[in-house]
Amino acid sequence: MRKSVVRCWAALSGVGLVASLLLVAPQLADASGALPERAATASAASALLSTDGVADYWTPARMRSAVPMDLDADGDAIAGSGPATGTTRARAATLTAPRSVGKLFFTTAQGNAVCSAAALNTAQKNVVITAGHCANSGGVPNLLGCSKGRYYTNFLFVPRYANGSAPDGQWVGTRAVTHQQWISECDAFEFDQALIEVAPRNGRNLVDVVGGNGVAWNFPAEQADINVWGWPAETPYDGMTVKRCHGTTTELDANGDAFLSCPMTGGASGGPWFVGMVGSNVGYIWAVTSRRTTTGPAYVLAYPIGDSIRTLLADARLNARTVASSSTTTSTTTSTSPTRAVTGLSVTPNHSVIGRGQLVVLRIRSAARRWVAIDASRRSARGPWTRVATRWASASGTVAVSQRLVRVGYRWYRVRNAAGRQVVVRVRINVCPLPAQRSAAVVDNTGCTGPTS
Q: What is the DSSP-derived secondary structure letter of residue 41?
């Protein structure tokens, strides 16, 4: 890992940083706040994977004993601590993972290992995304510069893995695709993403069984309403069940890294960071877990996916339909949301334009401790209306109502109060998710592929 990042992190947290899985790269914004284009500098590399005996190789015992891949602050491999056992297991609420998210098993020169991954919606319908170091060891420093990293073997993707069960089957890896920069250059952490192609199972493709996620690229590091999923497999966790963290990400430093308060440990690497969900099983992935802190405050870190991801998609022969948000959002995507009001009632949406799969929040002011009814319509400001909620205003007269919007187009909201007042507001749902920073320069640089359930 770049030592400058270690120094910045130490200054931030007051402790040293040991990386569980690494992804660090400079991506400085220009004066307008826009992130630079990166696809032009990216190239892809790949390796065919032997499928012989892989399904039989991964016995329950081997799955339980596989350890996460850990790297120290300089990118050197360190021994994994292994899963917790017996009374040391972490206690946490039982969660059900999205069907498209799973645990990734593979074999390295040091032994069997685990990461996390998620299915992508592509024309091929048999691809998962994970971290680059979960597919290839990456460039290794030597006296003459860097030697090429090696691809791992025996890849097996298990969606919704839980206590040894595979409710949606086990999918054998057939091909690994990484950035050439990741395998050939030292400290090329900007390119620490990978795709694993898997074989159809019982005549069916992966995405037809579990759904496929979209990818959103060129998002700044600071985002809200982020969900991170993974299978941490180091103490205090045992890797047998999925975990989730939710919150707002913050930029670590000028390198563009994002971090989120989250106690996940090794094994969560490669797990998806969702910037918006379209239903309970699929959404838009804008980063994959890269590393974590091991002392001080618990954080997971990731570098937002750049448009170089399209190089990997093309190399994997996916030809997924790409949606550029700039053509539909430039003139209207601002953070300003006009307030609609009549006497005694006002309604302000958090944004007048929302990305597909993201939250709209209506902030309402009305009479204190009186009811407010909220209705929605997809057709026009005249309805027909469907009841969303009925809420009581607080002592200060405020109400907040949120909905996750997944249907592209417009949504009208009618808000009525006990005094008979009525206000109608309109929100537009864009094709792609929208970044929290919504200047035209930032939005124009983003894009996505679409999910399917």
A: G
